[in-house]
Design brief:
The chain has about 500 residues and is of the alpha/beta class. The chain folds into four domains: about 110 residues, 3-Layer(aba) Sandwich (Cobalt-precorrin-4 Transmethylase, domain 1); about 130 residues, Methyltransferase, Cobalt-precorrin-4 Transmethylase, Domain 2 (2-Layer Sandwich), CATH 3.30.950; about 120 residues, Rossmann fold (3-Layer(aba) Sandwich), CATH 3.40.50.10090; about 130 residues, Rossmann fold. The protein has 19 helices and 20 strands. Helix 12 packs parallel to helix 13, helix 14 runs parallel beside helix 15 and helix 17 packs parallel to helix 18. The longest helix is centred in the C-terminal third of the chain and has 15 residues. The protein starts with a helix and ends with a helix. The N terminus is likely disordered.
């Protein structure tokens, strides 16, 4: 028990600038071990998925103009939670010590005798310009960089910002926060002797799929902000390096840059599709419509799983079926060999991969990822007469497989492995963003995602188009009155991503 005090420590963690890929390994580890997480407005909410289900998550706010908790309140909260003997993680956008008031939080913890650590993060002061194609230092352009905060009101006489000194320093100057005061700030800079034609860039929602960059000069940037309605959160860069953006703008040139895409898979499955779309530059809204729950009659399924060794074939139609089957199987048995001589059939590469993850071989996998193809494949194999087949699938699944296999003379047990229920929570704020900001495209990866999305009754954003993983899903979408704009030729996630990429590639 001597380590109890260390276990109660608080981690002040830099959550990075927004792109999940820029979160440090240590930050992710802290979140995975957290018992309490206190997080800010600028933290990517997707990070919270790494936390244990049981972790207490507290939103501290800090969005300009709507502080949920005061800084003193946050300091006291961290001390209080740490003193309860729980592992506390304070997640702060960017880096905790770069204009993040992390120093004050550290002082409060130190004063209270709470052991703490600081996990630096990638600050938007560096990442924002980098993702806008602006190197903040460049040989021949500048030899130094100045960071300053625009949060102060420049009209204050006692402002600690010395604009005359900034003007004399030259080099690259990066301003965090304060885009809403850009008019007053640029006026002060001009009055202090900075040249009117100095290039300026404002990068909003830097490093995320929502990134937008506005370029101008010191003399016209305020008018441009007013004309475009450019809003916080943004980072500003003043300096000649801004002109390098014409040549180096890599992030905003990707095929799906500027496109907002809705992903409707379950919370657990959305990751792969979201990640592949993000790599292409999309702003992804993960809006799970379904949640995987145990079947209504779990006991009945457990009895079939217990007798798995008695079957000639076990047929899996989805990764969820594989997960549900083996969750139960390994509760009943501690040896994979208890599955006996049963051979395994899988529909689709994702299902087959999930079987392989359990170190088992897939004996039959049709080229087409639909139930009918399994039936055709069994016919090719010489039929299934008198063979015992266990299907592990969803409640209310199509009855093609059991009907056709039984007609071929097989003895079929239809194992209801799981059910899908509507997802009603909005943990990551995606529904709110969809209603406020709209979207360009929605992806459907199964008929149930279409049915469940439509059942939610959410308003359909103007101009939102539909991408489907294959013909069965497309038919369901059309039956529900939707127009399918994109259909994957290969009916899997990479196929869907490729179809979306081509769709926007040909339209640009």
């Amino acid at each position: 028990m001597g380590d109890k005090k260390m276990a109660a420590k608080c981690s002040l963690v830099g959550a990075g600038p927004g792109d999940l890929g820029l979160v440090t390994l240590r930050a992710k580890q802290c979140i995975e071990e957290a018992e309490v997480i206190v997080y800010d407005y600028l933290c990517n909410p997707e990070m919270l998925k790494w936390a244990p289900e049981s972790a207490e998550k507290i939103y501290a706010g800090k969005k300009a103009g709507e502080h949920t908790l005061t800084q003193e309140g946050i300091n006291a909260l961290l001390v209080e939670k740490a003193n309860e003997g729980r592992r506390v993680v304070r997640l702060k956008g960017g880096d905790p010590f770069v204009f993040g008031r992390g120093g004050e939080e550290a002082q409060a913890l130190a004063a209270a005798g709470v052991p703490f650590e600081v996990v630096p993060g990638v600050t938007s002061a560096i990442a924002g310009p980098a993702y806008a194609g602006i190197p903040i230092t460049h040989r021949g352009s500048n030899s130094h960089v100045t960071f300053f905060t625009g949060h102060e009101d420049p009209a204050k006489m006692e402002s600690s910002l010395d604009f005359a000194a900034l003007a004399q320093l030259g080099g690259t100057q990066v301003m965090l926060m304060g885009v809403e005061r850009i008019g007053a700030i640029s006026k002060k800079m001009l009055a202090s002797g900075m040249r009117p034609e100095l290039p300026v860039a404002l990068i909003r929602w830097a490093t995320t799929g929502r990134q937008e960059t506005l370029v101008g000069t010191l003399s016209d940037i305020a008018q441009r902000v007013a004309a475009t309605g450019f809003e916080a959160p943004a980072v500003a860069v003043f300096g000649d390096v801004v002109s390098l953006r014409d040549e180096l703008n890599w992030f905003e040139q990707r095929p799906l840059a500027g496109k907002r895409v809705v992903v409707t898979r379950t919370r657990a499955q959305a990751g792969v599709l979201s990640e592949q779309l993000r790599v292409l530059g999309a702003d992804v809204l993960e809006l799970p419509t379904i949640r995987i729950e145990p079947p209504t009659d779990l006991r009945a399924f457990a009895e079939l799983v217990q007798d798995a060794h008695a079957y000639d074939w076990i047929v899996f139609t989805s990764p969820n079926g594989v997960n549900s089957f083996f969750d139960l199987f390994y509760k009943l048995y501690d040896d994979a060999r208890e599955i006996g001589a049963a051979r395994i059939a899988a529909i689709g590469p994702a299902t087959a991969q999930r079987v392989k993850d359990f170190r088992l071989h897939v004996d039959l996998q049709p080229d087409e990822y639909v139930a009918e193809a399994v039936v055709r494949e069994f016919k090719k194999e010489g039929g299934v007469e008198n063979l015992r087949i266990l299907l592990a699938r969803a409640e209310k699944a199509r009855d093609v497989l059991p009907r056709e296999l039984s007609a071929m003379g097989a003895i079929v047990d239809d194992g209801i492995a799981y059910r899908t229920v509507p997802e009603t929570r909005d943990d990551n704020g995606a529904r709110r963003r969809l209603s406020e900001e709209g979207a360009d495209l929605i992806t459907f990866t199964s008929s149930s995602t279409v049915e469940n999305y439509m059942a939610l009754g959410l308003p359909w954003p103007r101009g939102m188009q539909v991408a489907s993983i294959g013909p069965v899903t497309s038919k369901t979408a059309r039956d529900l009155g939707l127009t399918v704009n994109v259909e994957a030729r290969r009916h899997d996630i990479p196929g869907l991503v490729e179809a979306v990429r081509k769709f926007y590639g040909t339209k640009s």
